[in-house]
């Protein structure tokens, strides 16, 4: 039996999953929804979506996701999401010195749309510097050996603003939000007589709040509330940094496509409000394994991730600029940080009931670094799960048998080694 429309539903975490679930369930008539968020604000600074922008591109190595993203892009064009979606196009490339793995991945992405009717007339193969400057004259660097394709039916979303919009829409529908360490941070669950069914949550101030259904949407922190998730969700981070531009520079770069050289990283059109041009170097990322149990958790405070930009990442970002936008190649990076997400061994999300809780707990996690683009349709998945009481999408089920360990080498679209946070943070903290 699904919960009745007036039953209390507790959603933990106001990120992409939590906010979309709140909006969807309130739209389908649930009247007592509370969202608990540990930060004092939404968009929450702990959220992987607390950022200027995220790529919205439909091509995937797996055509199943291509189809899904095409639905999401329809959602990005609706009144709620439209103001935050910018269809600048996507220049998807590798540099002249890219490893074979990057080139092969790029090829698989391209295949997923090349023969797809939706993309006819919207794809341009890129084989030379001129092919690139024909699309974006502003990319006036040498672009040595850069090749790939341009997809006009893609772009990016202003992610913080999109989170804020959905937060405001949910609040306007009567969803209650509890924020901050005392009222918003969930520290554990309360169990019914049998010891399996969760009947409520406990917040930072020790208060117990009853709930008929608890939806855990805490992203990278999943294992802090559901220890069994630690064998399937790995808290991982990538770095980001920005270049601060002048008004004229921002204006000049207006409309440039999202530009991704897979082996160097990606950059976006600058944000006209802040004049910040964001760059993300990607790579194998950083995990934060607790030696006591072998599980990677996000660091406890924001301060630990702020200002961190490991030297190898900075070097790739500098090279990306030198080859594409050389006038900014030596400008300092600002608002640097590590951004924590919930990685899984197969890059599949987890949208399912937690086994052994008698249907009282749903886990939404395992975003694997590619959920943001789905924001407009994520709520629908949760709505179906709650109404139908079972997950029909096999690939998003609770991954019971997954084992701990270093599996990154198997993920085709990741380049580079995954490293431990502790190994990269020390020199930064010492300010060498
Ligand atoms: C550098 C980087 C680049 C990315 N680029 C892209 C991209 O280009 N395209 C794309 O589609 N996706 C991208 N992503 C992925 C995207 O940001 C994530 O998939 C998405 O934000 C995950 O959403 P979530 O709801 O699972 O988690 P989050 O958005 O992280 O939200 C989790 C929330 O739970 C809260 N929380 C945690 N613990 C508690 C607790 N105990 N009590 C209460 N609240 C709690 C946190 O404060 C946070 O607000 C990127 C991610 C990173 C890190
Ligand atoms: C909503 O749920 C809370 C518990 O989470 C409960 O205290 C409150 O009375 C409920 N409100 C209504 C109107 O039922």
Could you characterize what this model shows?
There is one protein chain. The chain has eleven helices and 22 strands. It is of the alpha/beta class and 432 residues long. It has a domain at 1-53 and 158-233 and 345-401: FAD/NAD(P)-binding domain. Strands 5, 6, 7, 14, 15, 16, 17, 18, 19 and 22 form a ten-stranded mixed beta sheet that branches. A six-stranded mixed beta sheet has the order 9-2-1-13-21-20. The longest helix is centred in the first third of the chain and has 15 residues, at 100-114. The protein is globular, with a radius of gyration of 21 Å. Residues 405-409 have low confidence and may be disordered. The structure holds flavin-adenine dinucleotide (FAD) and 2-acetamido-2-deoxy-beta-D-glucopyranose. Residues 6, 8, 32, 34, 209-211 line the site of 2-acetamido-2-deoxy-beta-D-glucopyranose (NAG).
In helices, the fraction of residues equals 25-40%
CATH class of the domain at 1-53 and 158-233 and 345-401: Alpha Beta
In CATH terms, what is the architecture of the domain at 1-53 and 158-233 and 345-401? 3-Layer(bba) Sandwich
Give the N-to-C terminal Cα separation: 59 Å
Q: Largest sheet at a glance?
A: 10 strands, mixed
* Strand elements, count: 22
Could you give me the name of the CATH homologous superfamily of the domain at 1-53 and 158-233 and 345-401? FAD/NAD(P)-binding domain
Query: Which oligomeric state applies?
Result: single chain
Average pLDDT across residues? 95
**Each distinct ligand:** flavin-adenine dinucleotide, 2-acetamido-2-deoxy-beta-D-glucopyranose
- Give the percentage of residues in beta strands: 15-25%
Indicate the structural class: alpha/beta
Which stretches are poorly predicted, pLDDT < 50 over at least 5 residues?
Answer: 405-409
Task: Quote the CATH topology of the domain at 1-53 and 158-233 and 345-401.
Answer: FAD/NAD(P)-binding domain
């Amino acid at each position: 039996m699904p919960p009745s429309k007036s039953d209390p539903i507790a959603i933990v975490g106001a990120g992409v999953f939590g906010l979309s679930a709140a909006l969807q369930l309130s739209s389908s008539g649930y009247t007592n929804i509370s969202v608990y968020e540990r930060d004092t604000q939404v968009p929450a600074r702990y959220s992987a979506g607390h950022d200027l922008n995220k790529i919205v591109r439909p091509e995937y190595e797996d055509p199943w996701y291509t189809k899904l993203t095409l639905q999401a892009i329809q959602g990005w064009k609706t009144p709620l999401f439209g103001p935050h979606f910018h269809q600048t196009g996507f220049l998807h490339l590798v540099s002249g010195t890219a490893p074979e793995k990057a080139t092969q991945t790029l090829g698989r992405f391209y295949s997923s749309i090349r023969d797809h009717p939706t993309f006819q007339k919207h794809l341009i193969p890129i084989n030379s510097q001129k092919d690139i400057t024909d699309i974006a004259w502003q990319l006036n660097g040498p672009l040595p050996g850069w090749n790939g394709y341009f997809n006009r039916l893609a772009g990016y979303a202003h992610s913080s603003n999109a989170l804020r919009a959905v937060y405001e829409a949910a609040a306007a529908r009567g969803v209650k939000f509890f924020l901050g360490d005392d009222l918003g941070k969930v520290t554990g669950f309360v169990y019914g007589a049998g010891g399996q069914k969760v009947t409520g949550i406990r917040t930072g101030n020790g208060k117990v709040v009853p709930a008929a259904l608890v939806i855990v949407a805490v992203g990278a922190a999943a294992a802090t509330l559901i220890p069994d998730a630690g064998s399937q969700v790995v808290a991982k981070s990538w770095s980001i940094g920005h270049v601060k531009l002048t008004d004229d520079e921002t204006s000049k770069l207006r409309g440039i496509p999202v530009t991704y050289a897979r082996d160097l990283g990606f950059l976006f059109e600058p944000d006209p409000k802040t004049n910040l041009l964001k760059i993300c170097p990607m790579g194998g990322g950083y995990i934060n394994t607790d030696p006591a149990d072998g599980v990677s958790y996000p660091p406890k405070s924001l301060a630990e991730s702020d200002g961190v930009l490991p030297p190898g990442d900075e070097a790739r970002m500098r090279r990306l600029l030198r080859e594409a936008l050389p006038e900014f190649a030596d400008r300092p990076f600002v608002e640097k940080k590590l951004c924590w997400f919930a990685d899984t061994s197969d890059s599949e999300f987890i949208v399912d009931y937690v086994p052994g809780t008698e249907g009282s707990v749903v886990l939404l996690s395992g975003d694997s670094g590619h959920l943001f683009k789905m924001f407009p349709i994520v709520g629908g998945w949760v709505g179906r799960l709650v109404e139908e009481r079972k997950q029909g999408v096999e690939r998003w089920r609770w991954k019971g048998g997954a084992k701990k360990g270093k599996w990154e080498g198997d993920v085709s679209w990741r380049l580079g080694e995954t490293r431990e946070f502790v190994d990269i943070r020390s020199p930064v903290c010492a300010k060498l």
